[in-house]
Amino acid sequence: MSEQTLITLVPDELKSRLQNGFARAGMTVENVEEPRALLQSLFTRRVNAIIADAALIADQIKSICQILETENKTALLILLTNSEQIMAKIYALEDGADICFDQPVQIEELVAQVKALFRRCDRIREVPRDLTIKDIHINLNTHEVRKNGSLIDLTYTQFKLLYLLASQREIVFSRNDILKKVWGENAYVTDRTVDVHVKRLREKLGEGKQTSRYIQTIHGLGYRLA
Question: Do 111 and 135 sit in the same domain of this protein?
């Protein structure tokens, strides 16, 4: 795995702990002081992940995700959240965040989780083939998804989810299977996280509420690609 660069926007008491923890894992951490600086940095450098306190960027989460979709599709948005604010986490995931970690943060565990996410991303990037499902074309080399030739903007997690379903169309994946294969064995995410990402992916593929041309829900079992 090549050296990873992370941008963080967190409370002062976390800055040095994050920097030291990720430095020991061979990663570079750049701290920013405000949401505007974070947004500006997305246009001026390539980063592998953003780690931010959700409370500090609550009004900018959707904007950050939109910028990542156009400027840096492979970057992960990792939010540090309040365990009691369930709906806030759901809204953040719907807006495009990749994963939420409840506070207080255990630095060693967070570093291990982020490393696992990066390894999974690297494995997907290394797969040397494309997939075509109906009018959807998935290019694993350029990380592009097109429908009838038109580019569809997906977050990296949405891309991983679509590729998982497309690569094994005959399999019905349970929510637990998807959690393990897309987010990793030890990620603290719930079944609701899968449902949120499937909903957003369906919308981007142009599926209506009453149709399931691409992603089918198999009640009591999970999801598969039609």
Answer: no
Cβ–Cβ under 8 Å, residues 182 and 196: no
Residue range 85-144, pLDDT digits in tens: 888 888 898 888 988 999 998 999 999 989 888 887 776 555 546 888 889 999 887 888
* Residue in 47, 43, 97 with CA at minimum distance from that of residue 75: 47
Domain boundary among 123, 158, 189: 123
Domain count, the chain: 2
Could you list the residue range(s) of the whole structural domain that residue 40 is in? Answer: 5-123
The token duo for 95 is 């807006």
Q: Which residues contact 151 (CB under 8 A, 6 or more apart)?
A: 144, 145
End-of-domain residue from the set 68, 98, 123: 123
**β-strand 144-147 against 150-152: which pairing, if any?**
antiparallel
With a cut of 90, say whether residue 79 has pLDDT above it.
yes
Distance between CA atoms of residues 181 and 68, nearest Å? 22
| 33 and 142 together in one domain | no
Burial of 102 (0-12, 13-18, 19+ CB in 10 A): middle
- Tell whether 169 and 209 lie within a shared domain: yes
